[in-house]
């Protein structure tokens, strides 16, 4: 089956699965418009049973999309020892990489989640939560929903995931094995010590989750710096200090820690940090 056929068949199956959009007219859509419709229908679908056929069509479609984007292996990502001639003790285990985190074939990637832990429901939103759920597929939302249901049975029906925790799920159609979800702090007004500690907790608990689950490589996104408005420079500083302190004690537990950035401005911030390390 060719790619356009997979797209058409999957789109029709998704429409049939939707009570609201069964009659959505997509026949005259361009291929790009059809792909956006697919992502949108996946984004807005509430947790609920998925038929085997729908999952089969989804997986075939997402695997082809994954191949088209290209998979980045750990061996393709240089360390800061190679890139910056870093003299940091564990520079051969730390990397800075700019690009789409959903392409990384690593032990785990980090998702900046919200307190509902179900992914982003805004169609084609540009947040990392949306990107990760869209590339992983609808079973990721299902797993997150099961986790939250169990936690609400234990802690009460109004339970929301606290800031700073780390929740492990499968990676599904992503090249990574796992996704670690964390709820970062939201900056409503000015930055304070509590918010900085909360962000540090995110990094520490993700690294602890890796150790507990024998995950040897992890790629961090820039937690809380987008919709949650944490200042990018301070966030990068906290990320580096937390990871470097962890590596001083537990470097034998990790093969690679990757700081994944998307924006040029974040790349520059981390480059400045690593260059400054060489001057110490």
Structure in words:
- By secondary structure, this protein is α/β, with parallel strands linked by helices.
- It folds into two domains: 3-67, no CATH class; 71-279, Leucine Aminopeptidase, subunit E, domain 1.
- Helix content is 48%, strand content 12%.
- It contains nine helices and eight strands.
- The chain has helices at residues 3-17, 31-44, 52-69, 80-84, 128-136, 138-155, 193-212, 232-250, 264-279; strands spanning 72-73, 94-98, 104-105, 108-113, 167-170, 178-183, 217-220, 256-261.
- The strands form two sheets. It has a six-stranded mixed beta sheet, with helices on both faces.
- Helix 1 crosses helix 3 and helix 8 (232-250) packs across helix 9 (264-279).
- The protein is globular and about 60 Å long.
Write the layout of secondary structure elements.
Blueprint: H1 3-17, H2 31-44, H3 52-69, E1 72-73, H4 80-84, E2 94-98, E3 104-105, E4 108-113, H5 128-136, H6 138-155, E5 167-170, E6 178-183, H7 193-212, E7 217-220, H8 232-250, E8 256-261, H9 264-279
Helix pairs in contact: 1-2, 1-3, 7-8, 8-9
In CATH, the architecture of the largest domain is 3-Layer(aba) Sandwich
- The total strand number stands at 8
The general outline is: globular
Secondary structure category:
alpha/beta
The oligomeric state is single chain
Q: Which band does the percent of strand residues land in?
A: 5-15%
Extract low-pLDDT stretches. none
**Helical region count?**
9
CATH class (first level) name of the largest domain: Alpha Beta
- The strand order across the widest sheet is 2-8-7-4-6-5
Q: Radius of gyration from the CA trace?
A: 20 Å
N-to-C SSE series? HHHEHEEEHHEEHEHEH
Determine the CATH superfamily of the largest domain.
Leucine Aminopeptidase, subunit E, domain 1
* CATH fold-level name of the largest domain: Leucine Aminopeptidase, subunit E, domain 1
Q: How would a crystallographer describe the biggest sheet? A: 6 strands, mixed
* Helical content (DSSP H or I, runs of 4+): 40-55%
Straight-line N-to-C gap: 58 Å
Number of domains: 2
């Amino acid at each position: 089956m060719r790619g356009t056929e997979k797209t058409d068949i999957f789109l029709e199956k998704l429409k049939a699965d939707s009570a609201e959009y069964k009659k959505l007219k997509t026949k005259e859509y361009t291929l790009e418009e059809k792909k956006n419709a697919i992502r949108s229908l996946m984004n807005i679908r509430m947790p609920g049973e998925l038929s085997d056929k729908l999952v089969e069509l989804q997986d075939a479609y997402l695997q082809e999309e994954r191949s088209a984007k290209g998979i980045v292996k750990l061996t393709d990502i240089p360390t800061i020892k190679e890139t910056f001639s870093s003299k940091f003790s564990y520079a051969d285990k730390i990397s800075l990489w700019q690009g789409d985190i959903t392409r990384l074939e690593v032990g785990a990637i980090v998702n900046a989640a919200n307190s509902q832990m179900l992914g982003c429901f805004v169609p084609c939103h540009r947040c990392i939560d949306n990107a990760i759920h869209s590339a992983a597929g609808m079973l990721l939302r299902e797993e997150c929903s099961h986790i939250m249901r169990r936690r609400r049975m234990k802690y009460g029906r109004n339970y929301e995931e606290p800031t700073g925790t780390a929740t492990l799920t499968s990676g599904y159609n992503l090249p990574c094995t796992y996704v670690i979800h964390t709820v970062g702090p939201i900056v409503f007004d000015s930055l304070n010590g509590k918010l900085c500690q909360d962000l540090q907790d995110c990094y520490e608990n993700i690294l602890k989750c890796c150790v507990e689950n024998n995950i040897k490589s992890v790629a961090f996104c820039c937690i809380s710096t987008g919709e949650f408005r944490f200042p990018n420079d301070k966030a990068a500083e906290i990320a580096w200090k937390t990871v470097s302190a962890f590596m001083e004690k537990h470097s034998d537990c990790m093969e690679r820690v990757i700081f994944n950035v998307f924006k040029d401005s974040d790349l520059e911030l981390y480059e400045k940090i690593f260059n400054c390390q060489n001057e110490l």
